[in-house]
Design brief:
Length: 1236
């Protein structure tokens, strides 16, 4: 095979066309999984093509040609797959070839699921959405279609839990089978006949099945079975000499019976005695649990005893039973009692035996050491199983409407094999219109056969468990486990033990719900079942069963005035009670087309109502015209059992007398008209959560004083509230209090809330004093209050990690004890315009990571680090100190943990000389410091310096920042509108960025084991000339330099790009501004290398648009080590493309910015100087191989490159990787307050 530039294809026969094209992403795969896979292919004589070093800067035509030449394309989808434009372009080409019947795609889902790819969910989807910002709509559509197309093809799933060797063996075996099928098919065809589509489907679908399981008639019917078999066999582990019992569990229809039957058929010959008993549940009900033991004995000893008498048991027959190993499979066990009857103490079972027990009730096998949860089918397997029954040819349809509809039906079944089978059979004779209509009605009119499938499990529930089941389905799907248990369980989880009954845990054990990562989830099939059976209504008896959730049902009942007696029971007829309880009503007001006038007694007889929710799924706020329920004559209630009340825009000034809070656990009345809750004191001891937010007429909350168990209280936007009652001190469980936006709040009582962790008082514009009301506080929001002084008692807040004082315009000083807050991580003082001084820190703030001081009245930079005057002078005269020990980092002041420092908008004239000691500092914001004249040497890990609008800035440090090899590779330095920068300063900036680029590139090349990361260093400053150091310069936006034939030698480390941009209209700049360069290197035969590089820019969400008042120079340094590496490996000293074409452009979030003009541009090759070692040691600090290796290895796993992302993502300060640090996002989101 002829080699292409910078490529190497591994193949057993270099002259043969590749049989398999491997498409994958990421060096972590290349050096592990892909390396092992290559060796396996080589051992088995499989020709394959793979890019040696993942060089994505070369001509794609070469790769596309290899795809066309291949018979199979192996698409390895990993979590990082969508970082690469190159991989996605290859996938589009693979899709085109497969649709033309010229290729078979075999997807490998490596630690991602087909559902994730199909729905573009999680990080996988986020990375794609970030990537498509830089491409056109056509390309984006092709990528999305290709991903969804590939996700529906049957492939091999790998979740990281099984041995990779098994995975590789499976891949090799399946590739060999597909190649064999292709060869057989080719032999049957005429030489130029195209491969039929149906055969292509057959080839691809065979990937998930082994030959000892699947034949051509049932491969789709048994989709996904092989993987589950392998996982179960791994649990049973025949190499283990002891007896092993494995419990297999899963929801109805998930495939437990099929799985254990298949296992029994495969393994029974391995044991001298074997028994497979089915329907244990029914057998136990019919004959009694004790009879099960005799049935097992009869099956095991039938060859020895003609008759098994009633008095024979395991103990009496132990010696006979211990003579031989047994394989026992018990299907559909329903209780621990049945397991005990089947196995007794299992001392009668010989060592080395294996027992499998399948069940729909996890408690039945809870005492077993080994269990296996049968997983749902993935999307590809679901599609194939559905298609087996829905189409006469048993194969998935071509891409189109039927394929899309099939995917939607498969998604509805959520991987349940039996449900897929039922749906497929029901749709077999229907046309496309029938399918569409059926899909629309599935939620309201579910399949009767699916309902029958689920009914057995439902019928075994107790009354309390059934109610809990319905409540979860209608109210609390995806809710926090503790929250749901508090509202649904009959026993309070705060007062319960592991032995206490819990309906939620019972449902989880019976597999009607699942609890995953602390959240209660319910399968869509169960949700549909619950809503169907939990909201039935009998017109004859006027009785509801459990739930009313359909708005049409509610409107009809309200119109006929049947609601008032839904919960009534006939006098002296308690037997009818359970059939007349309507325990929940859930009404979505957005579903009502017209306003509904309701009788004032509509809820007057609902004494058994436990859950009431009136909401708007389209808007959760006070939207005009959205409130559809009117009570012209008021509202009478009799709700004594109410546990949960959510009523958006509650229309009354007070809760009706009939709503008793004695059982109430959660009360939500956002945007209500309420003025007070109750006139008299009530029993509110069970209340845990109260939300009265934006109830603008609420003036007092004394009705909550008895809520001793209250945990969260949201009073945000209650603008008539002036204070809190003193009695709140008794709320010992309160952990969250939000009073943000209570503009009439003037004071807080002197009280102590011992458990309070989060206190939000933001925008309480009349609050002038803040007493410390809890020493347990962790997050304190005082944003935009009238506070003048923070009391010294703040020293007691030793658990506080966030203090937000943003826009406190009256704040004049901070207490000296601030440094004693040892847990403090984030301190926000932005906009405190009267704050003139930051206190001198006498203690070391070891945890502080974010300090925001923008817009304050501070005129001197805080003394963040202390050192003596002589030490300061020594530091100034020694620009490259040993920063780990110099000037006493262990002394008082901020520790080197500080990550972000914002000083923008202040009247600073200089920065602290020893700021470079802030070794971990990554973000330094100096925007609009109008009096700042100079910047000293900066820390080595700095990721972004933004000095936009520093009108007086003249000088910068020499060097700009400490030149040391650290894990921080990507750096941006912005000096826009710094019009007084002298030429020396500009030269220092240019020199530093160039040296930093060279140093990092050289270090990576030397000490990083050949794994090449791209370094990107960017800067911009006022100017109208391309620096003289650029070898190739030109006017306009296009540059076409001709390079020497041998320009890419071993010293090449990267390229430097420069653009001079003119801003003719400085008043309309965008927050997102990028200067990009499309680079193309070619020979006389055409382009070979093409990529787009970002030269510079910024992205500032929420900030004012930047107004640039003159021409500016943008410079970016981009590593090119991978080009050099490939060139040397593949061509030695041969020539590479020498004709270059560079096109510069300016873009914002909407595309090209026409008003900005590229005046001049420049390009230069950057090479490692001969004295790089001397520069490193003498001028840049100690970068020994050991130190450098440590620095690089520490960060490599989190850093990115062109090989990782293909381009760079702009951050708040230009170019950066995507691993930004975030703090306390959950609390900030709850408070609806921006950190900055």
């Amino acid at each position: 095979m002829k080699k292409s530039p910078s490529l190497r294809s591994y193949s057993m026969d270099a002259s043969a066309q590749p049989q398999v094209f491997i498409n994958f992403r990421g060096a972590e795969l290349r050096h592990s999984f892909i390396g092992h896979l290559k060796k396996a292919f080589e051992r088995n004589g499989i020709n394959f093509f793979i890019d040696t070093n993942e060089q994505k800067g070369l001509n794609q035509k070469v790769f596309f040609k290899r795809i066309e030449e291949s018979k199979i394309a192996l698409a390895i989808f990993s979590p990082r797959y969508t970082e690469s434009r190159w991989c996605l372009d290859e996938l589009v080409k693979m899709k085109e070839c497969m649709e033309a019947n010229k290729l078979v795609i075999v997807p490998i889902f490596y630690k991602v699921t087909p559902y994730t790819i199909q729905g573009l969910m999680g990080d996988f989807g986020d990375k794609l959405r970030e990537l498509v910002k830089y491409v056109d709509d056509v390309r984006e559509k092709k990528w999305t279609e290709a991903l969804k197309y590939a996700s529906t093809i049957i492939g091999i799933n790998y979740d990281g839990k099984r041995d990779e060797d098994l995975l590789i063996g499976e891949i090799v075996g399946d590739i060999q089978r597909v190649l064999k099928k292709i060869a057989l098919q080719k032999g049957k065809e005429e030489p130029k006949t195209k491969m039929p589509r149906t055969n292509t489907s057959t080839y691809s679908s065979s990937i998930t099945h082994s030959k000892n399981i699947v034949d051509s008639d049932n491969q789709n019917e048994l989709a996904g079975l092989k993987q589950r078999l392998d996982e179960l066999k791994e649990k049973l582990d025949l190499s283990h000499k002891e007896t092993r019992i494995v419990g297999v569990y899963g929801m109805p229809g998930i495939g437990k019976t099929t799985l254990v039957k298949r296992l029994y058929d495969e393994w029974k010959h391995k044991f001298q005695r074997h028994v497979h008993l089915v329907n244990i549940r029914d057998m136990s009900n019919a004959y009694g649990a004790q009879s099960l033991q005799r049935i097992v004995l009869k099956s095991l000893l039938s060859d020895t005893y003609n008759e098994i008498s009633d008095d024979m048991n395991y103990e009496t027959m132990e010696s006979e039973l211990l003579q031989k190993k047994v394989f026992l499979v018990f299907d559909d066990v329903s209780s621990k009692n049945q397991v005990h009857s089947l196995l007794d103490n299992h001392k009668w079972i010989r060592k080395g035996s294996r027992v499998v027990i399948s069940t729909r009730n996890r408690t039945a096998i809870s005492q077993l050491e080994y269990t296996y949860a049968v997983p749902s089918l993935d999307l590809a397997d679901s599609l194939n199983r559905f298609s087996f029954y829905a189409f006469k040819d048993h194969n998935c349809p071509r891409p189109g409407n039927l394929r899309d509809l099939s995917t939607k039906f498969a998604d509805y079944a959520r991987g349940n094999p039996q449900a897929l089978k039922i749906l497929g059979r029901e749709l077999l004779s229907g046309d496309e219109d029938h399918w569409s209509q059926r899909l629309d009605t599935l939620a309201q009119i579910p399949s009767p056969r699916i309902q029958d499938l689920l009914r057995k499990s439902y019928d075994e529930l107790s009354e309390q468990q059934r109610e809990a089941f319905f409540v979860v389905a209608c109210f609390f799907r995806s809710g926090d486990e503790y929250y749901v248990r508090s509202l649904v369980d009959s026993a309070d989880p705060d007062n319960s033990t592991d032995d206490t009954a819990s309906e939620i845990r019972d449902l989880a054990d019976k597999l009607l719900i699942s609890i995953s990562s602390g959240r209660v989830e319910m399968h869509d099939l169960w949700s549909t079942f619950a809503k169907k059976h939990g909201s039935s209504f009998s017109a004859e008896s006027s009785q509801g069963n459990y739930m009313i959730w359909d708005h049409d049902t509610f409107a009809s009942m309200a119109k006929n005035k049947r609601m008032r007696f839904v919960n009534q029971t006939r006098k002296n007829d308690q037997s009818n009670l359970k059939n007349s309880v309507s325990s929940g009503i859930s009404l979505d007001m957005s579903k009502f087309s017209d306003k509904l006038a309701l009788d004032n007694e509509i809820f007057s007889k609902m004494c058994n109502l436990r859950y009431l929710k009136v909401y708007n799924s389209q808007c959760s706020r006070d939207c005009d015209g959205d409130y559809k329920l009117n009570f012209p004559d008021g509202l009478k209630c009799a709700m004594e059992s109410l546990r949960y009340l959510y009523w958006l825009q509650f229309p009354l000034e007070e809760l009706p007398e009939g709503i008793s809070p004695k059982n109430l656990i959660e009360l939500n009345l956002p945007y209500s008209k309420i003025k007070r809750l109750w006139e008299d004191s009530k029993d509110t001891s069970k209340l845990k959560w109260v939300d009265l937010s934006h109830s603008s007429e609420l003036c007092e909350i004394s009705g909550l004083l008895g809520a001793s168990n209250l945990q969260r209280l949201n009073l945000e936007g209650c603008t008539d509230l002036t204070t809190l009652p003193q009695g709140m001190q008794e709320m010992e469980s309160l952990v969250y209090l939000n009073m943000g936006g209570c503009t009439r709040l003037v004071s807080l009582p002197n009280m102590k809330l011992k458990s309070l962790k989060t206190l939000i008082l933001s925008y309480c514009s009349n609050l002038e004093q803040f007493p410390v009301i809890s020493e347990s506080l962790e997050s304190l929001y005082l944003q935009a209050t009238a506070i003048e002084v923070i009391p010294d008692s703040v020293e007691d807040l030793q658990k506080l990690f966030l203090l937000n004082l943003k826009d406190c315009k009256s704040l004049k000083s901070l207490p000296d004890c601030l440094g004693k807050l040892r847990a403090l991580q984030e301190l926000i003082l932005s906009g405190c315009s009267k704050l003139k001084m930051f206190p001198e820190l006498k203690e070391k703030m070891e945890s502080l990571k974010i300090l925001l001081l923008d817009g304050t009245g501070i005129k001197q930079m805080p003394m963040l680090l202390h050192c003596s005057q002589s030490q300061g002078k020594a530091f100034a005269n020694k620009p490259f100190p040993d920063i780990q020990t110099h000037c006493g980092l262990s002394n008082s002041g901020l520790s080197s943990s500080l990550l972000s420092l914002c000083l923008s908008g202040n009247d600073l004239e200089s920065l602290q000389d020893n700021i470079s000691q802030l070794y971990q500092l990554k973000w330094l914001d100096l925007k609009n410091c109008k009096k700042l004249k100079s910047i000293p040497v900066l820390p080595p890990n700095l990721k972004c310096l933004d000095a936009h609008g520093c009108d007086s800035l003249e000088k910068v440090g020499t060097p700009l920042a400490l030149l040391m090899v650290t894990g921080q590779i990507h750096c941006t330095f912005i000096f826009t509108n710094c019009n007084k920068l002298d030429q020396v300063a500009k030269s220092n900036i240019i020199s530093y960025t160039r040296k930093k680029s060279q140093l990092i590139s050289d270090a990576l090349n030397r000490y990083n084991g050949g794994f090449v990361l791209e370094s990107l260093i960017g800067t911009c400053f006022p100017g109208c000339e391309v620096p003289a150091s650029f070898d190739h310069q030109g006017f306009g936006s296009v540059l076409e330099p001709k390079l020497p034939r041998h320009w890419c030698d071993s010293r090449l480390t990267g390229i430097a790009l420069c653009a001079v941009i003119m801003f003719p209209d400085c008043h309309h700049q965008n927050n997102r501004f990028l200067v990009k360069c499309t680079c193309e290197f070619k020979t006389d035969d055409g382009p070979c290398i093409s990529f787009t590089s970002i030269v510079g820019g910024w992205s500032i969400p929420g900030d004012d648009p930047r107004k640039i008042d003159s021409a500016h120079v943008f410079i970016g340094y981009t590593s090119w080590l991978y080009i050099n590496k490939c060139h040397v490996e593949d061509h030695g000293k041969g020539c590479i493309p020498y004709l270059a074409s560079l096109r510069f452009q300016v873009t914002n979030s909407s595309g090209e910015v026409a008003k900005c003009k590229v005046l001049k541009c420049g390009f230069s090759l950057v090479c490692t100087p001969n004295d790089i070692d001397d520069i490193s040691r003498e001028k840049m600090g100690d970068i020994s191989p050991q130190n450098m290796g440590n620095a690089l290895n520490k960060e490599n796993s989190n850093k990115t490159s062109r090989n990782d992302y293909d381009f760079w993502y702009p951050s708040n300060c230009g170019m950066t990787s995507r691993n930004d640090e975030h703090f306390h996002d959950e609390e900030l989101a709850e408070a609806n307050i921006s950190k900055t």
